[in-house]
Amino acid sequence: MKNVTVILAAIIFLTSCASTTPKESERSILGNWDAHGTFEGKAFVLEGRFKPGGDYDGFDNGKLFVSGKYRLAGDTIFIKDGLCNMTYEGAYKLTYYKDSVRFNVIEDTCIGRKNGSDKLAMGRIASSKN
To answer: Which member of 77, 95, 97, 125 lies 3.0 to 4.6 Å from 102 by CB, making a disulfide possible if both were Cys?
Structure first.
């Protein structure tokens, strides 16, 4: 009986330790992301919504300003949208840090998209679902 008590105590201890270990962040671009900043003295919130199936939308202070397509290959995201040319893809390296992601340009001749996306860090917006 004493052995059963010791084994049971050990199991409880090990499972409680496992449940307190921080969960590594999900390395997926799917979902909603935002970045807060200022431009010419005005605050802004940029939101990116990456959907399953390769569609994404970009919002500036709640207003849709771009929609496009994306695809992934490892840690690289390829983006195309109406800002420049829907037949041309820009390539960006994704670097994940816990609940954020950073975009670093690999190649993109779309100057507007490159200026807005290179070195951009966005935080994952927590889902309201429980």
So the answer is: 95
